[in-house]
Amino acid sequence: MNDRDFRLMARSLPTTVTVVSGTVNGAPLGMVVGSFVPISSNPALVGFFGDRRSNTFTSIVDMTRLSFCVLADNQHEVVEKFRGPASNRFDGVDWYPSARGLPRIRGSFVSLDAEVHSRAELGDHIMVVARVLDSEVGGPDDAPILYHRFQLTTLRAATSA
Question: Within 13 Å and on the Cβ side, how many CA atoms surround 81?
């Protein structure tokens, strides 16, 4: 399979929109990923895949603790902010430091802090696996924002059709 067809196939799969972040010199640094995944419940592990060509990822991959914020379906503006320059991504975003000092975006569908467990090089990406330290989950009426076929959508849109 060629690279273009593979990317088209991959972007056709629905994914959550997750901000992975940490801090550099006390300032938040984050990026959006569509590859966040729960891995294991015992021990509690999550992971994501980062493109080794990403400037932001090259800073994040070496961090020992990370926060993950699965964005809620009313957080389109956060997605737009994170499409901009890394140095401005948290500007104007309602975030707060977790108990461990990691950035958490207020109103996220799921937020968690994790400690990096392992990394593995896989093709042009690096898989980062992290042990969950704590988490917050939205209420029963909350839903995540999804990326599907080159656009943002929601579960509510899918169920109301």
Answer: 18
Q: pTM of the prediction? A: 0.92
Q: Output b/e per residue, 17-33; b: 16+ Cβ within 10 A.
A: bbbbbbbeeeebbbbbb
**Considering just the CA atoms, what is the radius of gyration of the chain in Å?**
15
Spatial contact of 160 and 30, defined as CB atoms under 8 Å apart: no
Length of the chain: 161
- The residue type found at 19 is V
Token readout for 55 is 């400037």
* Residue in this structure with the two tokens 């400690």, named with its chain if needed: 115
Other Cβ atoms within 10 Å of 136 Cβ, number:
13
Q: Give tens-digit pLDDT for 133-159.
A: 999 999 888 999 999 888 998 887 555
Q: How many other CB atoms are there within 10 angstroms of residue 153's CB atom?
A: 14
